[in-house]
Amino acid sequence: MHDLIRELAVHVMGEFGFMLEANTSSVSSAWPRHFTYLQCQYETSDRFGCIADPEISPALRTFLPVRSSSKELLYYLSGEMLQSLVPSFCHLRVLSLCGYNITSIPLSIGSLKHLRFLDCSSTLIEGLPDTLCSLYNLQTLLLSDCHQLKSLPNKIGNLVGMYHLNIHGAHRLEEMPYGIGKLSRLRMLTDFVVGKNRGPSIGELGGVKYLKGKLRISGLENVVSEADAAAAKLIEKKHLDELVLEQGQGSSVAIGQTENFQELRPHINLTKLSIIGYNGERFPGWVGHADLKYLEVLHLRQGRCCVELPTLGQLPRLKHLVVEGFDQLQILGPNFFREQHLSSIRCFNSLESLKFIGLPHWTEWSIVEADASLFPCLQELYVRDCPELIGGFPLELPSLRILDMSNCPGFCGSLPRSPLLCELSLENCGMADLSSLTDLTCLTSLSLHGGRPTDEQIAIIKAATPHLTSLDSLALKWSDPFTPSLEVTMGWHIPSSLRSLSITGIHDIEQLLMNSRILQYLHIYNSASPSMQFASSHPQMLNHLTIFECNNLREVQIIPPRDKSVLTYLCDLSIESCSQMSFFPGEGFLAENLTTLFVHDCGTLMLLGNRLNHCFPSLRFLSVENCPQLGSFGEYDFPHHLETLRIWRCENLKRLPCISECNSLQLLDIANCPKLEPLHFHSVDLPHKLQKLRIAECETLLSLPGNMHTLKCLELLHISDCPGLESFQREVLHIRNCNKLIFSYVVWQLYRLIFLKELVIEGFEGEGPFPATGSMPSALTILSMVAFPNLRSINCLELKHLACLRELEIRRCHSLQQFSEDLPHSLCRLTILECPLLAAKCRGPESPDVGNISQIPCLVLDPLSRDTPASPLSGSISSLLRHFLGLHLTKEEGEACRNSSNSNQEQQSVTSEREREAKRVRIR
Fold it and tell me: What mean pLDDT comes out for the span 483-499?
């Protein structure tokens, strides 16, 4: 399908279009007008050489990168490359820089007089140059998710031909520029920020009459008067579909708050409305007025001072209502449903979904019992984080299908009568009356979570479950450990329709499972039984079994032993935190189709595995973790089809299992097993198909298995914190804190590892240049050097032989001062952290010549400390870095430079994960 779409796109573009692909280096079209390509994480100048021709670049009309993977991935384009490309596109109509980790737009953007479409979405730009405002043909400007953007150009009002301005997600904007109201042709304006004591007023919106789609207005605490609000003329914007009115949470209750909001009344065509952070005690009258006859979605959030909700029951088409974060709200009275003089009107006639979230003082609904006209179409009801709610729900909700309540510990009322209810979830809801459970014959999912239940509640559930003939999933989990009385649970039967069961604290699991023929998922928590037995009368369709925190459990059996029909379909088995289980599996336990087995946190487990291949012949994945008493895996063979074996934190383990016949084993992961016998480990016969081997924190080991040199499929070898290792006999190799092994790296003959792509070495104490000549494998793409305290120079001549090297990381090399010569041209990312001498040179005036770093798309350096004094040249250095290299300083570095050069430019700290990385990344 991908190839068909590509061929169609190429056909549509015809002779005037050109699509750059990974294996393309020249322009195939004689007259290219439209240039598109798949983005690479690191864009190099060589990639765009095909359009740098002075005969081609002026003819381009479209420059359009296409994201090739997740939106979260950062794409790097050097500022130097951008500076050279942009001026050459003199006839460009469409320019997209979406997703690139750039922090500024070249001033030369103003020379693209024909530009109509500019997309800078998801970049780290801090502002736009004023030269942009000379692009009088610009119609679309996209700046969505520009989290660093703080201001728009002051003369944006000159762009009178603008139709679309998208600044959604630019949360650092503090104000709009003057003249925004002159953009009378705007059809899309996603956000408008009302500034505090500066910038234009909200009245600027009055000049933008034809807005469509969604508009978010924030900073409403800065609206100074009713006249100012009225000047926005929201009531005249009949093409708006969605409106968000947002007031800052840090603002105090303002006099005239309700009056200002009264003038923000939208047009009756509105379909979605959100009011966030309203600081008045009562909402203006237009909220909930029947005139909003097309309103379908209403969100009221963070009304921290509001004591009463508006009348909403009269909105004829309202389908979804969310009320969240009203600290002062106590009662939902009759006015919430309808005005008193309209008692005959049906309330919430179209409402399908209703959510009450975070109402700490809400105590009850005030509903007339005889009123059966409430919520006739309500299908979903969610009540969460309302700790003082007692009850008062409507007695009948005839269309309700989902009822979800959580964190309402004071609730003691009855549940509404809902004959169509399919899903019921009650979590930490105190003493909710469950007497109506028997009547919920359509229920397919029942989930009850909370503290210690009473025997009466258990008895009600026990009596009701046999009548729930449509029940598919049942979860009874209690946070407080408890064991109900045997009399209460005796004879408990679950419906035969059940497929998933999670249950806590039940003695007689065997009796409970008698009629559950099609059960597939079983999770057992905190059972007091010392033994668990599965028989042929129990569910034979069971796929997943979890046994958790059953501290009296000593064995899991099948009756009769070795009966293949008992657990025929079991695929996943997890046994965790069962402190009394000393061995597993027991005699006669058999699960022929089991593929995944977890055994974690079993403190007394001493033996795992006598004849595991016989018990679990289909096992593919085995994880054993935190079993400190485990001494061995038995004396017999291991499952032959095993693909992954993980053994972590087994402090008493001395010998690994016999894995020589596990011909499918691809990953072996051993960590924190300090008593492994070195001679035994050296004699382990690793399977020849092994692809990944990880060994960590095994202090006693002296050498790796003897047949390491025969592993032709090995792609990753990770060794860390094994100080006794001295030698080993390929894609990724990680070696950390193994001093004896690292010191002799030259004799490893790494160059013979022709498939090795990533190499990480940590803890090298040598002084000479690294790496030694001829020591590195030629296919290496990633090289990391960590904690080389005595290293003074890097042998770049050896690195130049690595034609595929793309990433070089240097960390904690405090004596490192220089590169011996220029870095390889293939390098796309250079990371230098905690290397003060080398980093200082990379920041200095000679930095462009240090290892030729100006050619690298991504350079990562430590941010300067606040205590670092600014040198007299810091201002000029900052300018040099910005102009020549395209490096972008962090907040700390910017402050140091500004103190010496009296610059007024402002830098912003980075908050999101994407921006936190950018705090150390310099893009050129």
Answer: 71
Domain-wise residue ranges, the chain: 747-862, 863-924
Q: Which residue has the tokens 């690479």?
A: 40
pLDDT at site 115 = 95
Question: Where do we find the tokens 């979860």?
Answer: 475
Q: Widest CA span of the chain, in angstroms?
A: 94
Tokens 């069961």 belong to: 501
- The three-state secondary structure class of 215 is strand
Q: Tokens representing 720?
A: 């860390």
pLDDT-derived band at 870 (thresholds 50, 70, 90) equals: very low
Q: Is the pLDDT assigned to residue 829 strictly greater than 60?
A: yes
Band of the pLDDT at 880, cuts 50, 70, 90? very low
Q: pLDDT (tens digit, 9 = 90+) per residue, 305-359?
A: 899 999 998 899 999 999 999 999 998 888 888 766 555 567 899 999 999 999 9
Angstrom CA distances, 765 to 726, 739, 743, 761, 844, stand at: 15, 8, 7, 11, 28
Look at the block and give the residue holding tokens 């449903």: 337
Taking the C-alpha atoms of residue 513 and residue 499, their distance in angstroms, rounded to an integer, is 11
pLDDT band for 255, please (50, 70, 90 cuts).
Answer: low
Task: Give me the phi and psi of 811, to 5 degrees please.
Answer: -135, 140
Residues 92, 115 contacting (CB under 8 angstroms) = yes
What's phi and psi for 746, nearest 5 deg?
Answer: -65, -35
Would you call 321 helix, strand, or coil by DSSP?
A: strand
The full DSSP string for 896-918 is HHHHHH----------SHHHHHH
Q: Could you tell me if 92 and 60 are in contact, meaning their C-beta atoms sit under 8 angstroms apart?
A: yes
- The sign one gets for the Cα dihedral 190, 194, 200, 206 is positive
CA distances from 852 to 46, 820, 823, 922 (A): 16, 11, 6, 15
* DSSP symbols for 637-692: PPPTT--EEEEES-TT--S----TT-TT--EEEEES-TT--HHHHHH----TT--E
